[in-house]
Design goal:
Mean pLDDT: 87
Order of helices and strands: HHHEEEEH
Number of strands: 4
Number of helices: 4
CATH class: Alpha Beta
Distance between the termini: 34 Å
Strand order of the largest sheet: 1-2-3-4
Largest sheet: 4 strands, antiparallel
CATH topology: Nuclear Transport Factor 2, Chain: A
Helix content: 40-55%
């Protein structure tokens, strides 16, 4: 019985790592396009399908505003992540830091996989020099 318990734990960790890895690949793609200022590409190709036109425009304005502040450097992934599965929908939250004009900015990206074979899409982005603002905005994920 003990063997099966450890097998289940191992299998659970393996499946979690697979989902997180897929979300990390999407995060890498997001960062690649964001760092080049390709906001239109992000909004047209990477957002969750359930994002409304109004939300997309707000998202576009937010990203453009951050990008316009200055050059992004020293991006680092923070240790840890959050993964939740509810009603067949998986969300993964990944945290990063980067610098703009020498100031540290905290970033949380939340990705969603709705189980429709599309894979992870960008669901929530929060960036702010105040970590508590980022944490509060993404606390449900």
């Amino acid at each position: 019985m003990k063997k099966y318990f450890f097998l289940l734990i191992g299998l659970s960790l393996f499946l979690t790592a697979c989902d997180t890895g897929a979300a990390e690949k999407v995060a890498d793609e997001f960062h690649k396009h964001f760092d080049k200022g390709e906001i239109d590409y992000i909004c047209e190709n990477m957002l969750d399908a359930k994002t409304t036109a109004e939300e997309t425009e707000g998202f576009r304005s937010f990203l453009q505003g951050i990008y316009d502040i200055g050059e992004i450097s020293n991006r680092k992934k923070s240790v840890g992540f959050s993964e939740k599965i509810r009603n067949g929908i998986t969300t993964v939250k990944l945290n990063y830091t980067f610098e703009i004009n020498g100031e540290t900015v905290y970033e949380s990206l939340v990705f969603v996989d709705r189980g429709e074979g599309i894979g992870f899409k960008l669901f929530v982005v929060s960036m702010n020099p105040d970590k508590s603002v980022v944490d509060e905005f993404t606390e449900d994920y």
